[in-house]
Amino acid sequence: MNRTFEYINAGMENGIGFVELNRPKVLNAINRQMVSEILSAFEQFDRDSEVKVILLSGKGRAFAAGADIDEMANDSAIDFELLNQFTDWDRIAVVKKPIIGAVQGFALGGGFEMALCCDMLFASDDAEFGFPEVNLAVMPGAGGTQRLTKLIGKTRAMEWLMTGDRMSAKEAQRLGIINRVVARELLMEETKKFAARLAKQPPLSLRLIKESVHKAVDYSLYEGMQYERKNFSLLFASEDQKEGMNAFIEKRKPDYKGK
Ligand code: CAA
Fold first, then answer.
1. 141 in ligand 1 pocket by Cβ < 6 Å?
2. Its pTM surpasses 0.70
3. Full set of structural domains in the chain with CATH
4. Is any ligand 1 atom within 6 A of the Cβ of residue 29?
5. What is the pLDDT of residues 40-76, one digit of tens each?
6. Cα separation of 151 and 22, whole Å?
7. What is its EC number (predicted)?
8. Residue 75 in 3-state DSSP?
9. Per-residue pLDDT tens for 106-126?
């Protein structure tokens, strides 16, 4: 990583690209520059062949308590239109490498939306998720109504979005929003362990699995199946496919190169 950032920390270790939201005094409230820094770090990691998996976390007692209310309080509709600020969020969704989120404390509003940009989520037992925008007389603007509905269905999403209530980590897990709930003191350790496990998987498989799963959300079953099939075939053009299958036949451990 050859850039220093103001609102995030970023670094790489053992194939894992780390991004930590770093505005703990305001519970990592997400301002515009922070989003562009997150995107910039993600895109650098996406291009760096040493990085296999990205881990997103927050510093301090919260993951992120939402978009920065102070920054947007006096904006007009035209400011939003001209800033087109949510484009960066769209680009996060097309990062090719797996993104794993580690959520502690609050993941609210834009913070919940940032968590939903991750492919998998680990949360501490004190994590709370929710969309409190309705209490500010607005609504989610960075994908909350869309991503939550696709994950948990219309009627449940309506309730969480319209009440602004906060859900516990256990409830979020029951609804299929998060993968694991762990004790707070173990959150980073457990998430890193999982990321390290994925970092050893064949990178091209992860890449095309991610793409295919994303298409499953948007495509019809038929279109999705066609897409999956093309990706399945494509993997047979890789050296790793030969290595994986030969290693199985020769009863040895595969050595993947990501090619
Ligand atoms: N924006 C800006 N500052 C925020 C913030 C936010 N979203 N959330 C918290 N902060 C700041 C507080 O103003 C406070 O700053 P000061 O110490 O300078 O006063 C600091 O973080 C600590 O917060 P609290 O003292 O309020 O902490 P608490 O433990 O009492 O409460 C909380 C925690 C319930 C999360 C409360 O801070 C809160 O309700 N925050 C706002 C949550 C929210 O409404 N999020 C949605 C934002 S809109 C959005 O996200 C739109 C979108 O879709 C893109």
1. yes
2. yes
3. 8-199 (3.90.226.10), 203-250 (1.10.12.10)
4. yes
5. 999 999 999 999 999 999 999 999 999 999 999 999 9
6. 28
7. 4.2.1.17
8. coil
9. 999 999 999 999 999 999 999
